[in-house]
Amino acid sequence: MLAASGVRHPPSADLLYELFRWAPGLVGYASRPVIDFVAQHAPVDVLERIQSQIANRDVNLVRPALLIARRLYDALPAGEVGNRRAARLVNLAGAMFDGGDWHGAVEYGHQAVAAWRTLAM
After folding, report:
1. What ranges make up the beta strands (E) of the chain?
2. 107 contact partners, CB below 8 Å, separation of at least 6
3. What whole-number distance in Å separates Cα of residue 118 and Cα of residue 104?
4. How many Å from the N-terminal Cα to the C-terminal Cα in the chain?
5. Would the CA dihedral through 14, 4, 7, 76 be positive or negative?
6. How far is it, in rounded angstroms, from Cα 15 to Cα 11?
């Protein structure tokens, strides 16, 4: 009900985002529809807070974890070259691997290694 309410009533969605913003561990108790809704619609700062809470938690959360990793990577500024980009590439590669896209995981993994090498020089 909460996810359906968020679709039709933006203040409900904002309350949900605020809840996860201040207590990201609660995502472990959320239903799959709520997690799917948050993965699709939540602001980037909320996704950053809950990403580690759903990663590797349950096979049913592979798709929302991949969506979160993709949204976080896509939210980076175009010229981003720092630690944040490298870390998000690692997270995206891991989520793709968990989701069965091994070729995509290898591609993003290579990009992550290149990003870390650039930072190490």
Report:
1. none
2. 93
3. 21
4. 51
5. positive
6. 6
Q: Which long-range contacts (CB under 8 A, 24 or more apart) does 3-7 make?
A: 3/31, 3/33, 3/34, 3/36, 3/37, 4/33, 6/37, 6/41, 7/37
* Total residue length of the chain: 121
Nearest of 54, 28, 23, 29 to residue 39 by alpha carbon: 54
Distance of alpha carbon 54 from alpha carbon 100, whole angstroms: 17
pTM of the model: 0.86
For residue 28, the surrounding DSSP H or E stretch is none
Condensed to tens digits (0 to 9), the pLDDT of residues 62-112 reads 999 999 999 999 999 888 778 899 999 999 999 999 989 999 999 999 999
Task: Kindly state the tokens that stand for 86.
Answer: 């490298």
Could you identify the residue written with the tokens 């190490």? 120
CB 43 within 8 A of CB 14: no
Cα separation, 112 vs 91, whole angstroms: 9
The SS3 assignment for 43 reads coil
